[in-house]
Structures are given as structure tokens and as C-alpha cells.
User: Fold these one by one.
Assistant:
Number 1:
Amino acid sequence: MYLNEGEPMAALLRKAASHSIHTNYVNKLLAAFAPPLPRPSALVEPLTPRERDVLRLISQGLSNKEIAEKLFIALNTVKRHTSSIYGKLGVKSRTHAAAQARELGLLQ
């Protein structure tokens, strides 16, 4: 039903996620908008513990600023970790990163 509404619905769901509204459910819906991702057998390079922390918070819908505050790190450090996560997972967005991480069993 949500998918039938296309990009306007995806934009609304992204906004809900950014405001921490039912983040688990919203992220599941957003993942359905994403094209299927190829399932690699394993990451070429594993995520560092801090990248896993950032990825977990990304999947909860937190903004970079919120992640920085929660982890007591600089905003630019969050951006650097996010870029590294995207590269290791082979994705280009937060939604895809969360979906790929779940697919690989990196998130509960």
C-alpha cells in the first residue's frame, strides 16, 4: 500500500525517521522502497566497533548531529564513519546501509 504512493510517501517516511517516529517500522517500510541489494557473502573489510555504533544509530533514524551528540564525537567524525560504512557495505544512502546491514546480520 505504501509503495504504491511512490517517492512522496518515501519522503514522508524519511521525515518521520528523522524525527524518531516509530523508527523500526518506518525503516522497514523505507527498506521496501529501496531496490534489492546484492547479498555479498561477507564484507571485504569488517566494520570497526565505532562504525557499528554509528550504523546502529543510523538504522534507528538518528541524524548525524544526534549521532555525534550521543557518541560524544565530532560531526565530521560521524560523516567520516558514515562514508566508510557506505563504502564497506557498497551502498549510497542511510536507508540502503540499514537494509544491507540487516541482510548481513550486522543489526538485530
Number 2:
Amino acid sequence: MNILVVEDEDILRISIRDDLKEVGFKVAVCRTPIPALSLLETKKYDVAIVDYKMPEMDGITLLQKIKQKQPDCAVIIISAFGTIQTAVEAMKRGAYDYITKPFSNEELILMLRRIQEVFSLKKENIKLKEQLKEQRGYHSLIGESKAMQQIHNLLEIVAHSNSTVLITGETGSGKEVVADAIHYLGPRKNNPYIKVCCALFSKEILESELFGHEEGAFTGAVHEKKGRFELADEGTLFLDDVDDIPLDIQVKLLRVLQHSQFERVGGTETRTVDVRVIAASKVNLLEKARRGEFREDLYYRLNVVPIELPPLRERKEDLPLFIEAFIKKYAKGEQMTISSQAMNLFHNYHWPGNVRELENIIERLALIAPDATIMPAHLPSEMFCKDIIPPIAWKEGNSYDEIMKENEIKLIKTALEMVGGNKSKAARFLKLKPSTLRSKIEKFRL
């Protein structure tokens, strides 16, 4: 760290310089503020240690000038005239901290070490953000909505820990993708990353999959087998659909989470592993535990760091970002765009299948119209929801027949617009015979 010391007392200035250099800091010193301001023009400093009372200008004035020139510089005010009012004023003006004379240089060094840790953390956060941007293959991490920004911030903290994480969210919301990000952004990224979907196996097979088995443990166990916990040693194990684990296996899972120990099926040897566990659930595990369908102690052991993924319908402001990413992924350089009418349908749709459903639709569109503008006619029928039906037009004084005619015209126009003018699709959407729709179009001269 580069440190600038501005202190008019010669003995103290030299003492601070020598002690700070001895512990590895790069130090420049000035007796008065004017030369210090000149140094700030030519070199960046991480910390400035500034005396409160000096000739030329006081420490608070110098503090303000430092912040104007180098806003990221942490300023420590030192003074023999320590009062609460002085300290409060310094902090209000942007000082990082305030220390009163006399003080030991060890006390100052400790303060600088804390600042160094903060700077290091900030740099790490910036690095993680850049890594997240580079990992745009993790499409479910895309998003500028408030909910997704909170998840991004949480990932920056969680990625470098070994804490157990429980990811909850609806099917298709991107739980596995978040688990991938936690592993690949963390210190275990070059170690094994093992996944198991707990919903795929029967109770007997799941126990063997997780913990392994010895030869002869059951019919068909002709060889010993390592379980997923052993395979994930020193790495990460992702337990998808953890809510589907049977109760009697949950006891064994709780033990390995608490003590990192287990026995294979049919074995007596206790095995120890170093595994970071990430679990995902499509249901509320606490509610399931309160119904007696899931061990409550296991829930709390899994829920050390909870991450709740919102469904796509609750963060539709992220839709354009997802669509752009999926077009780039599946259109393969072709000029595929989406019309405003089709985009309205994307925004009006409730997305029961979440991000996975959106990705599937974009992949389908890239196959059928990779170099075209996507119109409503290209979209699946389930996206034509009731929300597009126009409100009833009602004008005071109009007769019943006039109101019906006006609204029928409005409905037909909306249907035609939504399907890009395709009369056959409009007829199917309105549940009319094509011939009936054609006659109405002619009747109303549309």
C-alpha cells in the first residue's frame, strides 16, 4: 500500500515513516500540506495520514482537497486536540478514521492492516463481478432486477466460503445454474464437482449412489462402489431435489453434513470426506419439515446460506437480457430479432416453466426463423393468454348494437395484430371458422 504522511512534527513524522517502511508499506512524507498536494498530482496513494493542526491549512481542509483529487484514498486524521466534535467533523468530511496523540505506531499499523483488508476485499469483489460477467453461459445469473442484484451480491460472499447452501425456487428457475456458479467461482473450482438428482432414484439405489456400497451388500452388488460423497472429496456435491430424499436416508445425510463421516452400504469402515454441499429444493422445506415429511434438524443444517430464486414472472424486467443471451446462443450469428407485438406477448405471458421454458422457445424460434423478425405468428399458442384481449369499449349514448360492433372490430384487429395478420391463426385464436372470420373482415372493411 502507498501511504502519504503529512505531519509538521519532525520526530513523529520520521518515526511513523521508519516504522511503516519496516513492516512493508511504501511511505512518502511531507512536513506541510502544499507539497503533499503536489505529490497527489503525480502519484496515487491508498492512505493519507494527516495531522489536524498544521501551518498553511488545517487537516480537515487538506482532507477535503485529498478527497477531491483522489476520492478512493483513505484519510486518517491524527491530532493532539482530540474531542468528540473534532472526530465527528472529520468523519462527516470523509475521514476513514481518527486517532488522538499520543498513540503507538503499533496502533497505527493495526489500523492500516484493517484498511488493507478492506481494500483487498473490494478488489476481490471487483474480480468476482468480472468473473460473473465472463460466465455469461450461466444464463440464469443474467439480470439487472433488484432480486437478481441481491443474488449477485450474495454469490460474491458465498463463493469463497465452504458453507452449505440451500437454493430454493420453482422448476426451471435456474437453481442448478446458481450451484454451478458457486462452485466455479470458488476455491474448489479445479476439484471434483459431482451432481445427483435425488428424485431419480429409489430409496435403496439413492443410498448407494450417495454413500457407495461394499461388494455383496445387496443383490447385484458384485463390486464395491464409491458413492457421490467419496467422488466429490475436496470438491463440491450438488444435491438437486433434496426434498425427495427419504426420511431414513436423511439421518445418514445429516451425519455426514455435521461430522463429514459415513459408512458405505453394507460396510463398517467409517470414511471421512471434505465436501462442500450445495442443495436445491423446488418446495418450501421448512413447511415440509413442520408436516413431518422432512427432518427439521437436517433442514437447518442445509439452510446455512439460503438463496431463493424468484420466478421469471416476478422479474420480467430481465426478459430482454435473457432473450438477447439465448438468441446469441442459438441463432449462431443470424440476424434474428423480435417484433414489438411478439415482445408484448413475452411480457404478458406468465412463464410457468420459468427460464427453462423461455430458453426452449428461443431455441425453437432460432430453428424455424433464424434470420427473420419474430412475429406473434411464430409463437406457441399457449403464449396467447387472455391478457391480450382488449377491454370493452363503452361510449355513453351508443346503442347496444353499436357497442357490440365497436368491440367486435377491436377484438378482431387485436387478434390479427397478435398473429401478424395470419387469418387462419386469428380464427383459431378467436375460435371461429376461417370463413366466418373472413366474412366479418369484409363486413367491417378491415
Number 3:
Amino acid sequence: MAFRVRCVVNNEVAASSHLWGEHGLCFFIENGGHSLLFDSGQTPTVLQHNLQELDIDVSPVSTIALSHGHYDHTGGLPHLLAHMHHPRVIGSPNIFEEKFSSRGAKMHTIGISLSRQQLQTQADWIAQEDLLEIFPGVFITGAVPRRTDFEHGDAHLMVRHDGQVVPDPIPDDRSLVLQTDKGLVVLLGCCHAGLINTLYYIRDHFPQPVYAVLGGSHLKPASPQQMERTIQVLQQEFDSVEVCALNHCTGFDALAALRQVWGKRVQPFLAGNVLEF
């Protein structure tokens, strides 16, 4: 199956484009007669502008998949829901939990702005716990087990649970998997579960090798030790990866470290860029 993946929203934009950047992420995926959006960026304003610049009409699109419940991946939903015809929206049931970022004494709300009830008035909400095939050859992962001893969550990310604000393990973290003729293409949102944990999950569920890894890897806050172990496992266990196009929460240092060992296989995936498989 031939796939076309376009980055609609990202922190950085392609050179000479008229797109706008923001701390957020949105992808548009096409495959024959099927298309879907993965995440929606941070704001309706940037999402609308970039969709217009890229000449993407969302009205015939039937599906939105959500990687998790943070604002920088769900903030453009109001625009999409207003311009789509009651789409199905797929994601973890934990997406609607009240989420915060804690920096010292300051606590900021960083969750989705829509309630489950508000979303359900404009969309068919599909809460999924396990691996789900969205279209033929397009899957959304279930909850990814935390198996590695070196990939750690962000201590400043919090969630309200049973009336208490506690560290958020982000069980709602999801990724997409595309089955292409070249192998599996893994499309990451923020990868809070950990890049290696996510790749282990995919290896457990699919017989094909991973050909490409795209999107936000959440390696920007990684310690040098985590980065070293991540690169080691990638080289030893996932050397089938020929395309490593990362963005959003990956960070320049992580991209540079990966490119040092994998060379031109590693590239940024900027808003406006297109990859075909």
C-alpha cells in the first residue's frame, strides 16, 4: 500500500514556505481512498492557516486519531470538528483526564480543552485500549508497556487522579503504524512511553521490520545516559530503520546525536514536508 504523510503543524516549518510554526504537531496521512489526521496542533489559528497553505480540504476526511491528551496535540480540534462531517475520533479513554505541568510552585493546565460530552456532540468518539486497525494497513497502538529501565517520564507532568494531583505516567500515549511495501512506518505523536518501549511494542505485534520512524520522539529532555542507551538499542535491534524523520519534542541535540551514528537516514520532519512510502 502506498502512503503519503504530510506534516501540517510542527514547531519548525520548511524553508521558504508560508506555513506558521507552533509548539504542536499534526499529520495528514493518505492511502488510496482513505485519509486521516493524526493530532491537531496547538491552536485552531495555525492549523487552519497551514491546511489552507497546503491545500488540504478536511471536509471529506472521516477520521482523527489522537496521540494523547495534551493541548499541543488536541488544541486544533475545534477547527477540525467545525469543518468535518461528524468524524470518528479515536484515542485512549485517559485523554480527558485533567493534566498539568508543574514548574516549581507554578502549575499550568495542559490538557485537552474539550470535555468528552462536548466532543461527542460533534464526533463519534471511539475510546480504545488495545491495538486497533483504523483502515486497512493503518493501526493505532494500545497502551505501551514501560519495559526499559532507562526511559523515564517527565517529573513535571502531572494528572488529577482520585482528587489528588500526582505524576502522570501518560497511559494515553499512542502511535500509528502504517503497513507499507517497504516495511512498517511508525508515526509518533510525543512518544511519552519512550521510543524503545514503543518499538518493542510494535515488534511484539507485527511480523514486519520497522522501515521508518517519524514524528515526536520526546528525546529533548533525555539525559545523556538515556540518549546513549537509546542509540545503542536502535543500532543493535532496529537497524532495519532506513528513515528516521523526527520533529516536535525531539530536540536538536537528539537529532544531531542520531545523525552522527545513522547519517543521512536521520532528518528533521518540518511542517510542509512530505514523505511517501
Number 4:
Amino acid sequence: MSDAGIDWDGVTREATDLLCRYIAIDTSNPPGNERAGAEFLAGVLRDDGIAGETYASEPERANLAARLHGDGSKRPLVLLNHIDVVPAERDFWQVDPFAGLVKERVVWGRGALDMKSMAVTELMTLLLLKRQRLRLTRDILFLACADEEQGGIRGIDWLDANHPELFDAEYVINEGGFGSTEMFGVKRPVFSCSVGEKGPLWLRLVTHGAPGHGSVPHSDNCLDRLVRALYKIQSWRRPVTLLPEVRAMLTRLREAGLLDEEISEAALAPLANHNPLLSALLTDTVSTTEFHSGVKSNVIPSVAEASLDCRLLSGHEPAAFIEQVKATIGDPRVEVEQMMESHTPISPAETEMFRTIEAVTRETVPDAIVVPAIATGFTDSRAFRRRGVTAYGFVPCLLEPAELATMHGNDERIPVEKLATGVRMLYEIVRRICT
């Protein structure tokens, strides 16, 4: 790697301080309040002479774009991140989730992984390139978006509809893949670089019935009906589908000794039954996420609702899946409503950017495996991929499974040294691809 005289200890202190301050800005979505986060990022950039422009979809729902200009000989690179975070249940945390606390060289707080640490990593990359006064062959656009955690309606989708000039790029680096010290029970560093992602399909189940006194049960209890429907959904076994991109990922892992099974649908199906991650890569998934009914413990309710978070494999049509859900429930009195749907094409892995990511990763972690992957979650990258832009989900952090498990959970955190390594890796990747 080219250190170019950079004081990396100083960079680590700066990145840690920025992350703590950023976490302390509560951008829980709902309601979002991303403007406060955008103004913080804009202020940091402004202090280094980089101008940022705010794009507000609503008064407090702001997106931020800031650009380092290159000579235009290559198309731009976008460093993409989102400002909002999921809510935190404070009572279940060891620390205040919005204190931005460093404890024993670990940064704690909501967004420490998803995805304020990556935003700071991208921010520091932009600042370092500016300070180094490197001659860039392409523009680098730092793009921080609102509303990713609620589907992007006020963020990336709003920008897509109103500011298409921000989507002129050759490459995007965003969230969607981390490094893990262990996979399939084998301890060896594996970095996932997502080339695609599953499509979200959020459904609401609604059923109505006759209200009444809880002391007199009857057959038209809407809550009973919904419980029966949910049981059928959770008992529904969907078929295994091995996408070419997942086959390529699993083949690399098998060649590296992390997987013993043959790479075929028949061989992988039994393993998927006991491995949630593999199951999510091979099947359309359904999670029950919300359940609402009733006004009092002795009143039979008149309406019952539940939300389903479905994630579909590439090429699986939402309309067809909804019909399968209805057929599985087998009760026309359970209404199935579509709340949100999105899908994305898959980016190629045979690119200069992917090769650069591989090279820098292996130089940093010599025994690491880099695999093209399909992200089980969805990201803002989808809007770029729909426009034909190659987008990769790659967060250059090597984490323990226990650390990864805190994402969207309690006690979310990132060790300072792993944040520091991520900054060095991303800086080097971007330096090579842009100079």
C-alpha cells in the first residue's frame, strides 16, 4: 500500500472522534431527522474546503452530495451511505445508544455498524485524497442519503426521480458486504463483496371479524383467523434456487475449504435447513415483523393485522409470490396488501474495481478470501444498478460473528482498530481506482 506520508495514528483518532459525534446525532427512522446528520457531514467537509449540497425531500429529511473533481478521463465513483439508523431499545443496551461512547477501544452506539462507521470511512477517504492533493482521473461523489431504513422513498428514490445527474457514475461503493473472521464454522477471514441483493417485498395481512365479549368465543374471531394464516406461512417450505452468483460464491468457499458439500441444489438443501444465512441465499424468505390487534383483554377484536418482510431472489416476480402467499393461506378473508416492492439487477464481478478490492484486501489480510455475494438485505445501490451502474456492497472491516450480530440489535459496536483498518483499505482502493 501507498501510505504517502499519512499519519495513520492521527487519522484513527480523527475517524474515531467523527464517528462518536455522528452517532450522538439521533437519526432514528422513524422519524429520521437526517437533516441534522447531513449538516454535520457538510460541516466536516466544509472545514477541509469541500463544498456539499443539501437536497431535502422534506424539511427535516435531507440528503447530502459533495464532490471531488477529477480530470474527467474516467467516469465518476460514488461513495454511497445512508444517514438514518434503525431505532434502539435503550432499556436493553449496556450503554446509551446515542452517547457515541468509546469503551475499551470500542465505539458503541446505534449506527456503529449500520452504517455511520462506513460513512465516516468514506468521509475520511475523501478528506485524505483532498489533503494529499492527488491528481484524480475521475470525480468522486460522496452521497449521504435519507430514509434507507424505511425503503428510501424520501432518500435514494426521491433523488433518482428529481436529481438524475447524481447517478452518472461508473462505480458505486456502498454497504452490503462485510468481512467475517468465520464462515460455516471455519475460522478464516472472508470478505463478501455484494454484486446484487435480494428484492424486498413488504406485505400486510388484514382480516376482519365479529367483535364480542371475550367470555363467549365464536368462530368469526379475526385474530384466530390471522394466527392460523401466520402458522401456515411459517410452515411453508419454499424451494431452493441456486443463482449463478451464489454458485460462484459458494464455489470459491468450497475451493478454500470452508464448505464440504457439492455445489448443487440437492446437496445444499439439507445444509440450508440448519443454516439461516445459507437458507436466505437459496430461498425466498418470509419474516413476521409486526402484529396488531385488540383493544382490551376481554374484547374479541374486529380487525387483526400482521406485517411480513419477504425477500425474493433475483428473477422471482413479486406478483407471482403474492399469489403463492394467498394460496398457502387458503383463506380469502385474509387480505394480502403490498406495502413496498423493489428489485435490482446484478452487477458484474469482472471489473477493474472488483480486482482492486480483491488486491487491497489480500494485501491487508493475506489469508483472506474475497467472494462475490448476494446481499440478503436491500440497499440504496439498487437505484444505481437499475441505471446500469456497477455497484458493490463492500465494507472493509473484518468483524467477529458476535460483533456482526449487533447490527440492528442491542449493543451495536465497532472496535477502533477495525475502523482504522477500514479507512486505510478504502483509501487505498479509491486511490488506485481514481489516480
